[in-house]
Amino acid sequence: MGPSPLYFGDDSSSGESKDKDIDTKAEILACAKKTLSKKQREQILDDAYNRYMFDNDGLLD
């Protein structure tokens, strides 16, 4: 069985790449923690839908 999709190995050799991996992992863990609560999970989905429904160009991509 291979590594999971969230596997962050030490395959990178540059410091900048490792920093990016750490930031990415932290972002994924923060989002995962928010999805544990049904209310927060539904709010994330509603916000994502409404973002494109109302054509809010100024929001983060």
TrEMBL record:
- Known InterPro entries for this protein? rRNA_MeTfrase_SPB1-like_C
Q: Domain of life of the organism in this record? A: Eukaryota
GO molecular function annotations of the record: methyltransferase activity
The record's Gene Ontology cellular component field reads: nucleus
Region Disordered, residue ranges: 1-20
The Ribosomal RNA methyltransferase SPB1-like C-terminal domain, residue ranges: 16-58
GO biological process terms, semicolon-separated: rRNA processing
Record's protein name: Ribosomal RNA methyltransferase SPB1-like C-terminal domain-containing protein
Q: What species was this sequence derived from?
A: Citrus x changshan-huyou
